[in-house]
Specification:
Elements: H1 3-12, E1 29-40, E2 43-51, E3 62-63, E4 66-68, H2 76-88, E5 96-100, E6 104-105, E7 110-118, E8 132-139, H3 140-145, E9 149-157, E10 176-188, E11 191-193, H4 195-210
Parallel strand pairs: 1-7
Antiparallel strand pairs: 1-2, 1-4, 2-3, 2-8, 5-7, 6-7, 9-10, 10-11
Cofactor: Mn(2+); Mg(2+)
GO molecular function, one term: metal ion binding
Domain Nudix hydrolase: 28-161
């Protein structure tokens, strides 16, 4: 074997599983959430959680069931289903998974993998009071009728002490705007749905609109 071929094999050995991973330089962590629908006498409704007041991160915020991926989770969908079971008390095999929504970086740390699914029509929720303060549902037709308020946030960076500015050509002193992203606000009654939850909701509603699927009123039993 030539020296070149030997060195080629050594380099190829640096990729034993060919798996592409996430660079954790920005301290990203992976999470998955479920956008839960259920059929009621009012038609399709989306279920929302309100985070418990004692939570260390974003207490009182409106969210969907979800959380960190654990090593025992076979994939991100399994994470979303497990978290839904832990937070709402609904077994994984009782949830119909419709499919994934586009995953995105949450800017505050998490890489988020959302899924949409249908909960059983007749189910008694068992809330984990350590994480869930309360739940509420909003008819899909009401959400589709809302014109969200759209704001924009900028992303910026600046040098820390010791940064070699002389080698960073074109990097100006102070804050440098790197980009921005839209934030969707959905007001419903006295609640405001926004942030990560608003982004996932907006993505789902756009999918419903593009698919031409409009919510129909449920038939009352006579």
């Amino acid at each position: 074997m030539s020296q070149e071929m030997e060195q080629r094999q050594k380099l190829a050995g640096l990729w034993p599983d060919q798996r592409q991973r996430v660079d954790k330089t920005l301290r990203l962590w992976e999470s998955a959430v479920l956008l839960p629908l259920r059929w009621t006498k009012h038609g399709w409704e989306i279920l929302f959680e309100v985070r418990a007041a004692n939570m260390s991160w974003q207490p009182g915020d409106i969210c969907f069931p979800g959380g960190h991926r654990e090593d025992s989770d076979s994939n991100f969908c399994a994470t979303a289903l497990r978290e839904t079971r832990e937070e709402l008390g609904i077994p994984e095999d009782k949830i119909q998974v419709l499919g994934p929504l586009d995953y995105f970086y949450g800017y505050s740390g998490p890489m988020i993998y959302p899924f949409a699914g249908i909960l059983p029509s007749q189910v008694s929720l068992q809330l984990d009071k350590q994480e869930v303060g309360e739940v509420f549902s909003v008819p899909l037709k009401d959400l589709l009728a809302i014109h969200p308020v759209v704001g924009k946030l900028s992303l910026a960076s600046r040098q820390e002490p010791g940064f070699p500015s002389q080698w960073a050509y074109g990097f100006q002193d102070g804050w440098n705007i790197r980009g921005g992203y839209e934030v969707f606000f959905y007001p419903w009654k006295k609640r405001i749905i926004w942030g990560i939850t608003g982004r996932i909701l907006h993505q789902f509603l756009e999918r419903v609109r593009q698919g031409g699927i409009l919510p129909e009123a449920a038939h009352r039993d006579h």
